[in-house]
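Could someone model magnesium ion with this protein?
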Amino acid sequence: MKIDRVYHCSSLGFMKKYFTVDLFMIASSYFKKRKKNYRTVKDQQLTIAAKANIFICIIFCLFWTTYFIFAKMWLIVGMDIIFTLISIFSLFLIYINRISAGILLSQVVLLVFPVIFCLFFDVATSDRPQVAQLFLPAGAILGYLNYRRNPSFLQATLILLSIGCFIFFSGSSFNLESTIPLPEDIRDHGGWIATCVATLMICISIYTMQLEIQTESTMVQDLRLALIKEQFELFYQPQINASETLIGVEALLRWHHPVLGYIPTKDFIPAAETFGLMPEIGEWVLAQACKVLQEWSKKAETKDLTLSINISADHFMQPNFEQTVIGLIQKYEVNPSRLILEITENIALTNCVSMVEKMNFLSKQGVQLSLDDFGTGYSSLSYLQKMPIRQIKIDRSFVQAALDDKRSNKLVTGIIKIGLDLNLRVLVEGIETAEQFGVFKNNGCTEFQGYLWGCPMPLNDFLKQIAHFKMKN
Ligand code: C2E
Ligand code: MG
Ligand code: MG
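Reply:
Sure, complex below.
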């Protein structure tokens, strides 16, 4: 039986039924109900703090520009105007939703401006200390909030530079020889104004951090409640082989929040990991998967299917993880070879004896292990030799790249070859078009998963779909 693609969501059929289930429901919870997701709330808090700080910076610069125009200190006027313009541009970036870029730019202003002032103009005297460095922690805290949202090397460097310069200028009264000290009358009240403004900016950033922590703790409480109130669901996405025969499914977690609707995995799984909730959630997933496999073992059309589940690092590292898995397999009388545990490279990289022992134990009991998102981590291939991995899943970031760019294509071909040479099954995820399927099939991939054959969907919908797939004899 050929796969009937009418029922599946290809990238061309965005409004098809299961695309609707997976993505449209998420979108509707955002836009239709206009309820705010945790990440949206945190983004909004950060945006308000950044806008407030930059706005204060602009007013501060404009005030001093006017002041120095009257004082005829044109060098400082020029500098103030440049910093005002850059600040206005960073505000503009935030308005057009380039939040990280806007904050990074404003942080550069909050680093360069005080440093230049400390080096050339703000000369400490026995009566009056240097104050320009007080703006540095304001930039560092804002940067830290941005780093939590979107970690980057540049962001981390700017934070460290701001802190380093703050320590340096606070601990010394270093100035260059060619200083142009500000007149005493300006420093008299200017020092107080600068100190007040910098303190206000620091307070805004600290308050925002407190709001973020509150939002996170609300989310953690809601996640705990979600377990009790059974708000988690598993959606199922088909996996096929090179002849488009259905061979298994991947179960993917969904959180159906009673008010916010479906929360995207990227918004709650990292938080659940950070707050140590993944072992509990993972155990629920494991039990659900075993229940489903038990049901499937009773029906001809499902008894040969494998069921893959994702295992987070801290769940896998629980001391009794392997016993729990085997316990559930025995409780539900499941054929262990039908259960595939997807682990990521960070678990494999841990590479400690107990990890390998756990894997060997599970593998000896018949449970299959798969390496998810292959190629995205610090791909040290040695673990493929040491660990009983049966399948690698090539990350979907390689899929379109392999079609667009020769180097990526060669890389993917190499990865597939390594996998096949090591006798592993090689699955590629994120196949959306027939062209992508053709390229990966010709490159030797043995298994495939992606919207071309179906988005993740509720169990009953998946069972209704089964008739449209080619099945193993
Ligand atoms: P993953 O295990 O690599 O899952 C594949 C992700 O790619 C899923 O996103 C799936 O919906 C999406 N996907 C599948 N085919 C296509 C396609 O053709 N095109 C595109 N653009 N995307 C496709 P999802 O469900 O949001 O899950 C994201 C990640 O969250 C998963 O990545 C996995 O790492 C994690 N996750 C999901 N469920 C669980 C779970 O039960 N436990 C744990 N620990 N992690 C989970
Ligand atoms: Mg996976
Ligand atoms: Mg993956």
